[in-house]
Amino acid sequence: MKKVLVVTLFLSLSLILFTGCTKGAGDDFKFEYDFSDSDKGWVGDFTDYPVDYEPDIYELDFGHKDLPAELGRSGDKGLMLQGSNRSDDLFMYLRKQLTGLKPNTLYAIVIEVEFATDAPAGAVGIGGPPGEALFVKVGASTEEPVPVEGEFGGGPYYQLNVDKGAQSEGGKNAIVVGDGAKLENDEFDVYELKVLDNSSEPLEIKSDADGNLWVFVGTDSGFEGKTVLYYTAVNVVLAEK
């Protein structure tokens, strides 16, 4: 009996340390990701821009980088996403596969995202304000959410292969949870942390035949300027329906 208990405890601890996942009450799962010391396997990507885009104009960038000093978290890093929205519809996002779920099972999914933004509320911007026109979305899908080539405006365009909706509207696979405007500081170029989630409207998505599911968080922009965000944490709770 002692040997079984030790093995069970070791497996449970391994699940927490290596996947950030804990088993909740009943058939609930909770995945917690803090990006202060690593990217935890999350990948950054972009859609809604021309296939033949000019890199110097769009300034797309992703990396695990030092957080801005004003956040007071010396030594901590975050997942930085950057882009200049020349297409008036740039989607910048992070994605991660969750594993170990029940196969072919419908889950109610709540995603909480913490990020640092420097866009003051009420500011004027090209095409829309830099904060309120930056629509924050959380999403989930059975298939990996990746850019695919499509047609838009008569030319080849990168689009997301799952339904995230458009700008202020959500879609089958994503929900708008708020915007990128700061809540306190009204200065430009001064970062502030913000936390948003979809607890009032959980996503309902099925896991695949192997018990896997993809989640993503990002911003759908109507602000036609440069945005630089630092994601510091993502937490995901899945409750079996």
Brief description of this entry?
The chain is mainly beta and 241 residues long. The protein is 9% helix and 46% strand. The chain has one domain: Jelly Rolls, CATH 2.60.120.
How would you describe the overall organization of this protein?
The protein has 241 residues and is mainly beta. It has two helices and 16 strands. It has helices at residues 2-19, 55-58, and strands spanning 21-23, 29-34, 43-47, 49-50, 61-66, 77-84, 91-98, 106-117, 134-141, 147-152, 155-160, 174-179, 192-197, 203-206, 213-221, 226-240. A hairpin with a 2-residue loop joins strand 10 and strand 11. It is globular, with a radius of gyration of 19 Å. The protein starts with a helix and ends with a strand.
What Rg is obtained from the alpha carbons, in whole angstroms? 19 Å
Number of domains: 1
Can you tell me the overall shape? globular
Instruction: From the 3D structure, determine the CATH topology.
Output: Jelly Rolls
By DSSP (H or I, 4+ residues per run), the number of helices equals 2
Secondary structural class: mainly beta
**Strand fraction:** over 45%
Helical content (DSSP H or I, runs of 4+)? under 10%
Mean pLDDT over all positions: 90
Largest sheet entry: 8 strands, antiparallel
Query: What is the CATH architecture descriptor?
Result: Sandwich
Low-confidence stretches: 1-19
- Intertermini distance: 34 Å
Q: Which CATH C-level class is it?
A: Mainly Beta
Total beta-strand segments: 16
